Each structure stands twice: as structure tokens, then as C-alpha cells.
Amino acid sequence: MSTGLILIIALALVIVWLIGVYNGLIRLRNRVDEAWSDIDVQLKRRYDLIPNLISTVKGYATHEKELLEKVTEARAKAINAGSVAEHEQAENMLTGALKSVFAVAENYPDLKANQNFLELQKELSDTENKIQASRRFYNGNVRDFNTKIEVFPNNLIASKLNFAKREFFEADEVEKENVKVEF
Predict the structure, then answer these.
(1) pLDDT per position as a tens digit, 84-114
(2) pLDDT for 98
(3) How many CB atoms lie within 10 A of CB 64?
């Protein structure tokens, strides 16, 4: 075989390999974006349920105004969050505020027995479970994407093509704590 033919074959193999790496990176980036979209859908569902929950609780727990305002404020911050880190922080605040609402509801027997409140509580619980599943799916895709762009020799290509690591969506220490409600 001539040297020219060997070089052409080697160059063709390198090009095919580059195309494969690039396509793999694009595929993983799209999975991460899709997973983030799944989280976004569940968060929107949660945001839509919160005003109904607050309205129901207001009728029974009129002197819990500060707590309800805290939930409303946390919801607004979560809706307006931009980056993954901002979403993470805002969602953790909102989760903590919602836990407080449900803890306070324990002291209002009429509220706990209200069918609307029970249904909203069930819907929010279901939504929280879906958010957790979406977070796991997102984080798994972020892990795969970050691994793909960090391993050699993919890292050489990924850095040249501006593929950047993505952030995980994690619970912070506040979200991991139990809610303390004092009366």
C-alpha cells in the first residue's frame, strides 16, 4: 500500500471518529435539555397548584398570614429563577415553605378534613414525587454528558466546540432538614 493511501485511510478514520464524538455530544446535550424540560413541566404544575392551596388554607388559618406570604414569595422567586443554581435555591426555599404549610395544617382539624385541601395536598405530593423523579433523570443525563466531555480524548474536541459541563440539580441542606413548627 502506498503512503498516500494509508494517510487517506487514517484521515478518513479520524474524521469518522470526530463525527461520532460530536454526534454523541449533541445527543447527550439534547437529553440533558429534554430532562430539564421535564423538570420545568413538573415545576409549572407545582406553581399552578400553590395559589389554590394558599386560598384554601387562608379560609381556615387566618392568623398564619406571614407563612402564606412566605410561600407566595418563594413561589414568585422560583418562577423567576434563571439558572439551574437559582432554580435549585428557589425550589428548595419553596419546598421548605410548603412543608411548613402542611405542618401548620395539622393544628386545624377542619382544614385537615376539607376535601379541597386533601385533594390539593395529594396533588402536591404527587407533583413532588414527579419532580424528584425528573431531578434524578436530569442528574443522570448531566452525569453522562459531563463524563463524555471530560474523558480523553473527547475533552479535546468538546473544549474546542464549546461544550461546557452542566450543573446538577441538588437538594441543599435546608431542604434535607425536618420542618420545625412552633406555636
Answers:
(1) 888 888 888 888 888 888 887 777 777 777 7
(2) 83
(3) 19
With cut-offs at 50, 70 and 90, classify the pLDDT of residue 178: very low
- Amino acid (1-letter code) at residue 59: G
CA distance 165 to 183: 46
Where is 90: in which H helix or E strand? helix 84-105
Tell me the whole-structure pTM to 2 decimals.
0.73
Q: Which three cell numbers stand for residue 144?
A: 453522562
Give me the phi and psi of 177, to 5 degrees please: -80, 155
Write down the architecture of domain 3-176 according to CATH: Up-down Bundle (1.20)
* CA dihedral angle for residue 88, residue 93, residue 96, residue 98, rounded to 10 degrees: -100
User: Do 25 and 148 form a contact (C-beta atoms < 8 A)?
Assistant: yes
* Domain edges within the chain: 3-176
Tell me, rounded to whole angstroms, the distance of Cα 155 from its chain centroid.
26
